[in-house]
Amino acid sequence: GEDVEQSLFLSVREGDSSVINCTYTDSSSTYLYWYKQEPGAGLQLLTYIFSNMDMKQDQRLTVLLNKKDKHLSLRIADTQTGDSAIYFCAESRAGRRALTFGSGTRLQVQP
Amino acid sequence: DGGITQSPKYLFRKEGQNVTLSCEQNLNHDAMYWYRQDPGQGLRLIYYSQIVNDFQKGDIAEGYSVSREKKESFPLTVTSAQKNPTAFYLCASSIKATDTQYFGPGTRLTVL
To answer: Which of B97, B99, B103 sits opposite A43 (nearest CB)?
Structure first.
């Protein structure tokens, strides 16, 4: 199965909070990342969390990490139409050659 | 400005032709990567390089080739052996392997 899993699609109304979820399988993950991809563009690093942390907040973004359940979430407060994009979760593991990415969650923000 | 550049942004190729996609970084990163992205799918690793003059195959290396003669450059050649090359190609770099990766803007390759 996939090392990193995400739901495919999320739709929210402008001004609401969005929560994008990710699960991973390897407890040896060191860092976990959230990237944003707008149409036709590369991936933009949004934020990351070290595996010994539970939470990280950066302006409208809040990352929660539940290591017991191997669950990572990204909460976007006051979601705007400019937040419409695909969001990728990724993990880093010691000894692995590169990051492992999920398949991405498409966030649609309705006005 | 520090960053990663990819060129061209759009590329069209006839069947049977080889094409080379450019990736340059001025971040002084040791590691560089090439990914392929198909519509509605995640990223798949083609090749990666942890240091100059060294590179390794990723998950889908067949039909592709790379070189790493300079630290700042990691070109990808899509050969005629690649059966379905139409896709969006992303280059990334990191200080070292498994560190935070930074991405270029991508090249969209279309085979006519």
So the answer is: B103
Q: Is the peptide bond before B105 cis (omega within 30 degrees of 0)?
A: no
Using CA atoms, how far apart are residues A41 and B66, in angstroms rounded to an integer?
22
Residue A37 parent element (H or E): strand A29-37
Contact A82, A56 (CB under 8 A): no
pLDDT at A29: 79
B58, amino acid identity = G
B16: distance to nearest CA of chain A, Å? 26
Whole-number pLDDT of residue A98: 81
pLDDT for res B2: 66
- Is B56 in the A-facing interface, judged by CB distances under 8 Å? yes
Distance of alpha carbon B93 from alpha carbon B48, whole angstroms: 9
**B106, A41 contact by CB (below 8 A):** yes
Query: How many beta-carbon pairs under 8 angstroms link A with B?
Result: 58
